């Protein structure tokens, strides 16, 4: 890496199922203003902006241009990145490359979504091939459900294992995250009793749809040293888009894209023993089942070891590797922002700025992004510019 | 979505006509809502003013795009202004046009506003529109709180 | 700026209807760009796709071309904007030092949708969208504003159309090579005054791919890498009423940045050929001013003088430009591809002799709200 990249500020809205107070640009500006405040910078300090969301949810074409009133982009370099569910993390990575290239020093990454403006499932269904798949592939849930059925069959995992993930994430949000959308305490019984959406995924296993925005200020070394007393350093990034046709992935118990993205990011960062080296993880878990069957893709446990890892309590707050102190995606899901929030939350952790969500002494974190087309992004973040 | 195939002549490739039908409910937000309420209830046009550069924005917004600061001050602007530019649309696009073409569009700088407002022009000879014309807003009798509560802008003195 | 070389380019022939699917077009240009560079898909260590959900009629539109571009094998991302922005991302990924060779692929099939409906969606759904405003009548507002402020005439704009359609006759990829006169343009059907049919670009299906490489790889593998010397991008205000539509400040800012990086002080003298995004005839005039090739309001006179013809002092759009072929999202990347061919001396009948420095330009949003400028050298 020629130029080191840091994160010096993070901002987000208080996420809600329906934010009718705000027009989209206003939602964006709340997050941006908070990010600037967090970095102690002004809009004049921003050299470039990268923004992303999923077009069909708000039906606005060329959002990079439309959003300038909210993003502060008037007379600035702006571009849009969109990759489906991974949009948020792809935007983060795009901002990372803006800085890593040496072309820009202080770059604002913005992810946002006003999901309440449309019917999410109908909008998502347009991602399937209009000729071969669109008629029958119901939204994002179907493939996830099929994946866990395969995992249960192969490794003996259960619905209860997944319910534990749901309880962990929901309760973290309730206890520690005032920005989260869903903040109710729940129990495993309540999860198990909730109605099936798509077997084996039940209502309380599934993420909500949320209106919200997140903004992160990425900075080169000079800016980092000038502004933040403790910047978060981005040590590794990986993006993997392995699958295209949903049918290719149905029946797979694992997530190859996450494995590949993790490999890329870990190599860049120097992570060789993820479970030991990470102090905290903000993972894009869109359904609790994923919180069981994707852990091995990240190298956090042995193959088929998801249930053991979850049941050990190691991923709870206070455990060896807390996962989703923010409550993760199960508590908050403004799709274009969701992946960026994982990066932002991970950065806040290593900066020591995570407030009630803070994992004490967190120095190295991992953040992931996921898209309904089974794509993955991984980001490794640390309080140190390089791992020893 | 019903799908049927149509053979395309001799080229041998199939085409499947289809439509994406998605419903949307856009939020005007607090600022947009106030703008429309003033139009609907009082036939008044209000913009927001930046405390730093003092520009008055139409349509109104929460944050000044240039100074990037919040705008809390509302200022009423005139319903009369100057036509900055115009065009007459002479092609039809089903589903998106408010009127049958030909119809006129323009950008109007209302007296008191710093920015232009794009809207329809009416009660005007389509071949006789001029940049710099003075125009006045005509409001609908039955208003609902949306952009077309202003029916169009007509030349002053007509 | 570090060194990024362009070592492969490919374009489909632009046409009203290409029976190939999105993936097939993307695969074709990927394969041909690889052949052009003398490389295989295994040599690409990352990709950037350029797809737009509205134009493709699909959310996560980049899924359609993931496999066709080899993006399932390597780190990848999707830029949703003009192809020049995709190339910018491709360059940044190489300049980071983390990747060596980037494949950038843009595609679109305007034949599949209703362009006016898709461009109407650029406008704010809470405000202007209900006016039925789209790319054509909004550009008409700009053309009128520009003509009114600077006295530019419809004839001068028509001359751009005549020049570019004629230039297109020498471009095997062009959609609309035509022999027309100024009078033909002035008499053509009015779409939205003052824009007439022959002032407007066609709607085309097409794809384009370029391969960018870091310095060592570029020099080792290819005898004529074309170097990216400067890049700049910038966006103006959003609501058309917020802007002075006759002015080109955002383009001037983007150009300034690109020129500074490239060490260009006098663009008119130092640039040998320019490929600019002329979605409408008047735009070529405005962009000439934004690029600093002449003063504000002076482009009409420049066109009158013939300076921008193929044999003139600074040929603009020898490829025929966007007026002759317009696959949205692709057209800016195509400007880069054409500039590369010029600098390699491979532009055949449309070659600008001895071209050493070229400019390629793309726009984004309504009335050129955003601009991206590339300066290339051989």
Strand and helix layout:
The complex is a heterotrimer of chains A (388), B (158) and C (378).
Chain A: E1 5-12, H1 24-39, E2 48-52, H2 55-58, H3 63-66, H4 68-71, E3 78-80, H5 87-100, E4 106-114, H6 120-125, H7 141-155, H8 159-176, H9 188-193, E5 196-198, E6 201-202, E7 211-220, H10 221-227, E8 232-240, H11 246-249, H12 256-269, H13 274-277, E9 280-282, H14 290-293, H15 306-311, H16 328-331, H17 335-351, E10 364-371, E11 375-382
Parallel strand pairs in A: 2-3, 2-4, 9-10
Antiparallel strand pairs in A: 1-7, 1-8, 4-7, 5-6, 8-11, 10-11
Helix pairs in contact in A: 5-17
Chain B: E1 6-7, E2 14-15, H1 29-42, E3 45-49, E4 56-57, E5 73-77, E6 80-89, E7 103-110, E8 117-121, E9 134-139, E10 150-155
Antiparallel strand pairs in B: 1-2, 3-4, 3-5, 6-7, 6-9, 7-8, 9-10
Chain C: E1 4-11, H1 22-37, E2 46-50, H2 53-56, E3 76-79, H3 83-95, E4 101-109, H4 115-120, H5 135-150, H6 154-167, H7 182-187, E5 190-192, E6 195-196, E7 205-214, H8 215-221, E8 226-235, H9 249-262, H10 267-270, E9 273-275, H11 281-290, H12 299-305, H13 321-324, H14 331-344, E10 357-364, E11 370-377
Characterization of this structure:
The complex is a heterotrimer of chains A (388), B (158) and C (378). Chain A is α/β, with parallel strands linked by helices and 388 residues long. Chain A has helices at residues 24-39, 55-58, 63-66, 68-71, 87-100, 120-125, 141-155, 159-176, 188-193, 221-227, 246-249, 256-269, 274-277, 290-293, 306-311, 328-331, 335-351, and strands at residues 5-12, 48-52, 78-80, 106-114, 196-198, 201-202, 211-220, 232-240, 280-282, 364-371, 375-382. Chain A has 2 domains: 5-121 and 210-233, Thiolase/Chalcone synthase (Peroxisomal Thiolase, Chain A, domain 1), CATH 3.40.47; 134-208 and 238-382, Peroxisomal Thiolase, Chain A, domain 1, CATH 3.40.47. Chain A is built from 17 helices and 11 strands. In chain A, the strands form 2 sheets. Chain A has a 9-stranded mixed beta sheet with strand order 3-2-4-7-1-8-11-10-9. In chain A, a hairpin with a 3-residue loop joins β10 and β11. The mean pLDDT of chain A is 92. The termini of chain B are far apart. Chain B has one domain (26-155). Chain B has a 5-stranded antiparallel beta sheet, with no helix packed on it. Chain B has a 3-stranded antiparallel beta sheet with strand order 4-3-5, with helices on one face. In chain B, strands 1-2 form a two-stranded antiparallel ribbon. Chain B is globular and about 65 Å long. Chain C has 378 residues and is α/β, with parallel strands linked by helices. Helices cover 36% and strands 19% of the residues of chain C. Chain C has 14 helices and 11 strands. Chain C is globular and about 55 Å long. The two termini of chain C are 16 Å apart. The chains are: A alpha/beta (388), B mainly beta (158), C alpha/beta (378). Chains in contact: A-B, A-C, B-C. The interface between A and B is medium-sized, with 31 and 22 residues.
């Amino acid at each position: 890496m020629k130029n080191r990249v840091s994160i010096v500020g993070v901002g987000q809205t208080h996420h809600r199922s329906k934010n009718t107070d705000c027009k989209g640009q206003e939602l964006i500006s709340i997050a941006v203003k908070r990010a600037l405040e967090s970095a102690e910078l002004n809009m004049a300090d921003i050299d470039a902006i990268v923004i992303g969301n999923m077009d069909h949810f708000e039906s606005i074409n060329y959002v990079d241009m439309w959003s300038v009133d909210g993003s502060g982009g008037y007379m600035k370099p702006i571009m849009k990145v969109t990759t489906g569910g991974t949009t948020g993390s792809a935007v983060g990575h795009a901002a990372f490359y803006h800085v890593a290239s040496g072309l820009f020093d202080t770059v604002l990454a913005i992810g946002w979504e006003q999901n309440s403006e449309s019917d999410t499932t109908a909008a998502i269904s347009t991602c399937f091939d209009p000729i071969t798949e669109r008629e029958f592939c119901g939204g994002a849930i179907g493939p996830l459900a099929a994946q866990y059925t395969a995992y249960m069959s192969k490794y003996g995992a259960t619905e209860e294992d997944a319910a534990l993930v749901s309880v962990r994430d929901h309760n973290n949000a309730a206890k520690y995250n005032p920005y989260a959308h869903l903040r109710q305490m729940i129990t495993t019984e309540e999860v198990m009793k909730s109605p099936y959406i798509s077997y084996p995924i039940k209502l309380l296993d599934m993420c909500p749809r949320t209106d919200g925005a997140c903004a992160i200020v990425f900075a080169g070394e000079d800016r980092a040293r000038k502004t933040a007393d403790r910047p978060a350093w981005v040590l590794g990034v990986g993006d993997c888009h392995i699958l295209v046709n949903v049918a290719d992935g149905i029946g797979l118990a694992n997530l190859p894209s996450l494995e590949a993205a993790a490999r890329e990011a870990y190599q860049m960062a120097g992570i060789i023993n993820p479970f030991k080296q990470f102090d905290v993880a903000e993972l894009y878990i869109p359904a609790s089942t994923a919180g069981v069957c994707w852990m091995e893709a990240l190298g956090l446990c042995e193959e088929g070891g998801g249930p053991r890892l979850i049941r050990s309590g190691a991923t709870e707050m206070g455990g060896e590797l807390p996962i989703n102190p923010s409550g993760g995606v199960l508590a908050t899901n403004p799709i274009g922002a969701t992946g960026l929030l994982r990066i932002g939350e991970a950065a806040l952790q290593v900066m020591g700025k995570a407030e009630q969500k803070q994992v004490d002494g967190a120095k190295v974190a991992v953040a992931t992004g996921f898209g309904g087309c089974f794509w993955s992004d991984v980001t490794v973040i640390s309080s140190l510019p390089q791992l020893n | 979505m019903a799908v049927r195939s149509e053979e395309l002549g001799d080229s041998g490739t199939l085409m499947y006509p289809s439509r994406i039908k998605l419903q949307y409910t856009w939020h005007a937000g607090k600022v947009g809502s106030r703008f429309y309420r003033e139009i609907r209830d009082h036939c008044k046009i209000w913009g927001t003013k930046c405390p730093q550069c003092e520009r008055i924005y139409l349509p109104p917004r929460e944050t000044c795009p240039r100074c990037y600061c919040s705008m809390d001050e509302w200022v009423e602007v005139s319903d009369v202004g100057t036509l900055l530019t115009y065009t007459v649309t002479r092609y039809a696009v089903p589903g998106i046009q408010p009127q049958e073409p030909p119809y006129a569009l323009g950008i109007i700088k209302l007296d008191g506003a710093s920015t232009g407002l794009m809207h329809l022009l009416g009660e005007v000879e389509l071949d006789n529109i001029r940049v710099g014309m003075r125009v006045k807003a005509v409001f609908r009798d039955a208003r609902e709180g949306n952009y077309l509560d202003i029916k169009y802008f007509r030349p002053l003195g007509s | 700026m570090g060194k990024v070389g362009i070592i492969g380019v490919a374009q489909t022939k632009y046409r009203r209807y290409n029976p190939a699917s999105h993936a097939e077009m993307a695969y074709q240009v990927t394969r041909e760009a690889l052949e052009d560079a003398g490389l295989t898909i295994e040599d690409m260590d990352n990709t950037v796709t350029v797809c737009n959900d509205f134009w493709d009629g699909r959310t996560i539109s980049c899924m359609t071309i993931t496999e066709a571009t080899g993006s399932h094998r390597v780190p990848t991302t999707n830029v949703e904007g003009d192809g020049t922005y995709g190339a910018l991302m491709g360059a940044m990924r190489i300049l980071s030092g983390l990747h060596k060779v980037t494949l950038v692929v843009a595609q679109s099939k305007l034949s599949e949708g209703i362009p006016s409906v898709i461009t109407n969606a650029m406008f704010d759904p809470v405000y202007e969208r209900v006016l039925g405003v789209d790319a054509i009548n909004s550009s008409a507002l700009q053309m009128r504003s520009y003509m009114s402020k600077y006295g530019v005439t419809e004839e001068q704009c028509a001359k751009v159309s005549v020049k570019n359609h004629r230039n297109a006759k020498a471009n095997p990829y062009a959609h609309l090579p035509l022999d027309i006169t100024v009078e033909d343009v002035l008499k053509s059907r009015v779409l939205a005054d003052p824009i007439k049919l022959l002032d407007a670009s066609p709607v085309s299906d097409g794809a384009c791919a370029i391969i960018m490489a870091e310095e060592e790889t570029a020099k080792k593998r290819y005898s004529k890498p074309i170097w990216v010397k400067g890049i700049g991008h910038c966006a103006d205000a959003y609501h058309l009423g917020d802007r002075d539509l006759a002015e080109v400040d955002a383009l001037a800012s983007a150009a300034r940045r690109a020129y500074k990086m490239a060490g260009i002080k006098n663009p008119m003298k130092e640039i040998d050929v320019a490929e600019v995004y002329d979605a409408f005839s008047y735009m070529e005039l405005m962009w000439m001013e934004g690029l600093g090739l002449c003063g504000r309001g002076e482009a009409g006179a420049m066109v009158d003088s013939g300076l921008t013809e193929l044999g003139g002092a600074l040929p603009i759009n020898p490829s025929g430009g966007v007026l002759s072929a317009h696959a949205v999202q692709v057209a800016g990347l195509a400007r880069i591809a054409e500039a590369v061919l010029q600098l390699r001396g491979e532009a055949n009948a449309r070659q600008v002799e001895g071209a050493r420095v070229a400019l390629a330009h793309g726009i984004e949003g309504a009335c050129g709200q955003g601009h991206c400028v590339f300066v290339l050298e051989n």
